[in-house]
Design a protein that fits this description.
The chain is mainly α and 486 residues long. It contains 25 helices and no strands. The protein has helices spanning 41-55, 62-77, 81-92, 102-109, 113-120, 130-139, 146-158, 160-181, 186-193, 215-232, 235-244, 252-260, 265-271, 276-282, 293-308, 317-331, 336-348, 358-361, 369-376, 378-386, 393-400, 422-436, 448-457, 465-473, 475-482. The protein is globular and about 65 Å long.
Length: 486
């Protein structure tokens, strides 16, 4: 039987079943729809959450599926509408701080941070185990001798608590800060800050125990674990792991709820459905929130900071590209709404780079062919994520085209001049300039004048001459604003 929806508040624990015509689960009904023509906040956030999934080594849709799990728990616990709303956005934005510790994890392990993050989700890292040792041996100093990797693994085992406190603390604090900045409630922020606390007090960042841990954080912790095991292995494995960690990692009452769902086929079909995002959009609690232009700008700014935090070499990159692109657009006298779109596209152009390991981003030498394949996929991810937001279709194209070149030699699609609108050409120029004035593992950033000369050399074959000319004429102001060449 198909469950029709998630209902928070009085009577929320009562089951409401109805069979759909084709016996597939119906999406939960939303209580109130927004005004036609507006963009719902949940639509923007749920789309952007896919970028956070990539940073954590999870398939896109992890946070969305976790949201389905968490909202079902909320129903069983009969949470209030306000609690449900706070939980809804905590589940979607739970990994907002995930890029903050990527560089440090790469530094500690000397390997692919994304692979390590993906695999650690299946480990109980709170206690020594043979499985944990195997995890370290797979992820520590790949390419080195077994003896070297074993010695490093033992060293990391002895430093585990200190490293965990540093890594998880940074992630949780930054995640809470990000959601505050985009106008979420303090309850949502605290749920994200405490999502790695454990029922027995062995979690982080504060070692809170039992009901000292905010209820919503306890729900998020269980929900993300259920999703990882259900998607990566099976629903039965997910239920088993939650049962095994009941009373240690997890609130026993929430673990009990998950056990009761073991044979609820309609629930698991929804969690694992290719239409999971549609279910999540329709289960938004209470009145659906419209995303005002200011709220969208705040989200773009916040996610630009998430992107730039991935590596010390990209610190402020998205911000710098945005400032340069806006200046070019304004000096070309483009319409205000076009300038706004360009600014947002520039802030989000490297969204897909969250899928690239720091072992590639921070490699001091030449990338291998395999590494280039990974690198060249990042604009594709940018487009896939952004095109899921209503009205962002052109923005998605422009943001993803920042590595295209007028002669068709760029990537990922090899578009030529006639296929690249002015909006895309502006961001190409801004991105090249910002990149070559920034330090990279293999070179120092170039001075402003040298960078401007390189831009001119790339016209008209690669870059648009009009955009480069306008940028050069205003470069002293632009460079000062960006701090480039200092």
């Amino acid at each position: 039987m198909a469950r029709t929806g998630v209902i928070c508040g009085k009577g929320a624990g009562k089951r409401n079943f109805q069979r759909s015509v084709n016996n597939t689960p119906r999406a939960p009904r939303m209580l109130t729809v927004p005004t036609p023509g507006t963009i719902r906040l949940s639509e923007v956030v749920s789309a952007l959450s896919a970028a956070l999934d990539l940073t954590e080594g999870q398939p896109m849709g992890h946070a969305i599926r976790s949201c389905i799990v968490g909202m079902r728990i909320a129903e069983e616990l009969q949470l209030s509408p306000q609690q449900c709303g706070d939980l809804y956005y905590a589940l979607l934005l739970k990994d907002s701080g995930c890029s903050t510790n990527a560089a440090r994890m790469h530094q500690i392990l000397g390997s692919d941070d994304i692979k390590a993050k993906r695999e650690v989700k299946f480990e109980d890292w709170t206690k020594p185990s043979l499985s944990g040792l195997r995890y370290l041996l797979r992820n520590v100093l790949p390419g080195k001798s077994f003896a070297t990797r074993l010695a490093k693994s033992v060293e990391l085992g002895l430093q585990q608590k200190r490293n965990n406190a540093e890594m998880i603390g940074a992630r949780c604090e930054r995640g809470a800060e990000i959601v505050r900045r985009i106008g979420m409630t303090e309850t949502t922020a605290q749920a994200i800050r405490s999502l790695d606390e454990h029922w027995n007090g062995a979690g982080y960042p504060e070692g809170r125990q039992g009901e000292e841990i905010p209820l919503l954080a306890r729900i998020v912790n269980v929900s993300q674990t259920v999703e990882v095991f259900a998607s990566g292995r099976s629903p039965a494995d997910a239920v088993q792991v939650v049962g095994e960690r009941s009373g240690t990692w997890f609130d026993p009452e929430i673990a009990r709820i998950i056990r009761t769902l073991r044979r609820d086929d309609s629930f698991w079909l929804r969690v694992l459905s290719k239409d999971a995002r549609e279910y999540v959009l329709q289960m938004e609690p209470g009145v659906a929130i419209s995303a005002s232009p200011q709220r969208i700008d705040e989200l773009c700014q916040a996610f630009a900071e998430v992107i730039d935090a991935k590596s010390p070499y990209t610190y402020n990159h998205s911000m710098g590209v945005s400032r340069a692109a806006v200046e070019i657009a304004q000096n070309l006298a483009l319409a205000p709404h076009t300038v706004t779109m360009i600014r947002r596209a520039a802030l989000l152009h490297d969204l897909g780079k969250l899928s690239v390991s720091n072992s590639i981003l921070e490699k001091p030498g030449k990338l291998s062919d395999e590494e280039w394949v990974v690198m060249k996929k990042h604009p594709v991810y940018t487009r896939l994520i952004l095109q899921n937001i209503s009205g962002f279709e052109h923005l998605a194209f422009v943001a993803a085209a920042h590595h295209e070149r007028l002669d068709g030699t760029g990537y990922p699609d090899g578009y030529a001049a006639e296929e690249l609108p002015l909006t895309a050409r502006i961001i190409c120029v801004a991105d090249v300039y910002q990149a070559i004035t920034e330090d990279r593992p293999y070179r120092a950033g170039l001075p402003r004048e040298e960078a401007l000369s390189i831009l001119e050399e790339k016209t008209p074959r690669h870059l648009d001459p009009q955009c480069v000319d306008v940028f050069r004429k205003n470069a002293p102001v632009t460079a000062k604003a960006m701090g480039a060449g200092a």
